[in-house]
Amino acid sequence: MSQNAATYADCVASLRSSLNFLESSVTTLDAGVSDLPRLSTVLRPTRHFELIPQPTLAAAEASLRDEIGPQIALLLDRVEAQIARRERRIETLQARCELLQGRLAQPEGDGEYGGGAGKKGKSKGLGRGAGSKRPLGGESALRARAVRQRREGLEYSVERLELEVLTKERELRKRLDKA
Question: Which sequence ranges form a coiled-coil region, renumbered to this chain (predicted)?
């Protein structure tokens, strides 16, 4: 039992020294923290302005302009090219939209919607008139249908190419106007 008492005495002594150490740490910390409001005003950044001669300022501006000027010009050229590309894309999509709207507005039997479609309407009318006089047999009907579909596809391609030519002409006129 005396051995347990000695062990407890050592533990109590160690605990007291730890408490003393902790108390001194708290006092030191308290002293350091109490000075923080004053330190915040002391350490507040202050800005100093120096006057430099005009030639030095002009040289620095010229150096900066020479350094970033070519990069800015390059970026502006890229932006202009991208804008032109987007404008051409918009024109192409608008032309395609007009073409498709025209094709949707034109009923199957009626070929007269204006523009270059009058030719298409007349050819359809002739083909339908000939087809309505005598009915075609199985294989002939399939051939006639394939020929009609091919003709419609070719007419669409021609219209698309005509619109492309118009778009290219507009672009060329714009470029010539700018030059």
Answer: 76-103
Segment 48-79, tens digit of pLDDT: 677 888 999 899 999 999 999 999 999 999 99
| Single pTM value for the model | 0.33
In contact, 120 and 155? CB cutoff 8 Å: yes
The packing angle between helices 138-178 and 117-133, to 10°, is 180
The model's pLDDT over 89-113, given as tens digits with 9 standing for 90+, comes to 888 888 888 888 877 776 655 444 4
State how far the Cα of 171 lies from the Cα of 168, in Å rounded to an integer: 5
> Six-digit token pair at 114?
């204006």
| Phi/psi of residue 16, nearest 5 degrees | -65, -40
